[in-house]
Amino acid sequence: MASSQLLSFLFLSLLFIFIYSSHSSPDNNVTKAQSQVKPKKVNLSLYYESLCPYCRSFILSQLVKVFNTDLLNIINLRLVPWGNAQVVKPNKTITCQHGEDECYLNTIHACAINIWPDLRKHFNFIYCIENQGLHIKEGQQSAGADAVWKACSARLGMDQKLIKNCYDSGYGRKLLLQYATETNDLHPKHLYVPWVTVNNQPLYDKYENFITYVCNAYKDRALAKACMSHSPKATEEKSSISPVCYVDSA
């Protein structure tokens, strides 16, 4: 009797599973799953140097828009503070286009990016330095640059000791040389800064129009409100050439 009831139960269970499976639509399930997959983020990179006035202007007036809109949801932003600096052999001395202050601040930027990988946190720090950097006079020694980043770290509640240890230990220099390798390995080679790439493709002198390029590269621009006001054809329209700091300029 018990075995007969068990067999009946198993038969009814199998029948239920068969009926349920036959009424479910695999195609609908796949479609639903696919619709929930977000498009791949766009890679946006800025190759820059801390005291180039055009890099500073781009960061303060253009790149900051990423954080004031929903663009941050569709991009992976990287900041690479090397620019047009050079490594002079045989001692591997680093020389920068705008002097020692620039080498110093490039290293401070590199340390901050490493210590605080959170994009918003290290960008706020770099933004503050660039904004304060407007007041650094040409030829001023590193004491002025030192005061600038320390004022920014204090304002943002970022531990100055971590940055100082990074710089004093030589680790900041190591980070900077890694950025040097990355910049020098660009294909095509960078010709000036700011040098902006979208999915590794340079925008050349159209870098101020980076939002349109980002939106065009994103697979579903309707998901980003910031993209709705940018025409896909804007990249083809004629625009004035954005100013830059050339590699070979003094």
In words, what does this structure look like?
With 250 residues, this protein is α+β, with helices and mostly antiparallel strands. The protein is built from 10 helices and 8 strands. It has helices at 2-23, 26-36, 53-63, 65-68, 100-115, 119-133, 142-156, 160-168, 171-184, 210-217; strands at residues 42-48, 75-81, 86-88, 93-95, 192-193, 195-198, 201-202, 245-246. The strands form 3 sheets. It has a 4-stranded mixed beta sheet with strand order 2-1-6-7, sandwiched between helices. A hairpin with a 2-residue loop joins strand 6 (195-198) and strand 7. Helix 5 (100-115) packs across helix 9.
Strand order of the largest sheet: 2-1-6-7
Number of strand elements: 8
Shape: globular
Mean pLDDT: 85
Q: What is the H/E string? A: HHEHHEEEHHHHHEEEHE
Low-pLDDT parts are 24-35
Helicity level, as a percent range?
40-55%
Strand content: 5-15%
Termini separation:
98 Å
Largest sheet at a glance?
4 strands, mixed
Number of DSSP helical runs? 10
The computed structural class is alpha+beta
Q: Cα-atom Rg, whole angstroms?
A: 26 Å
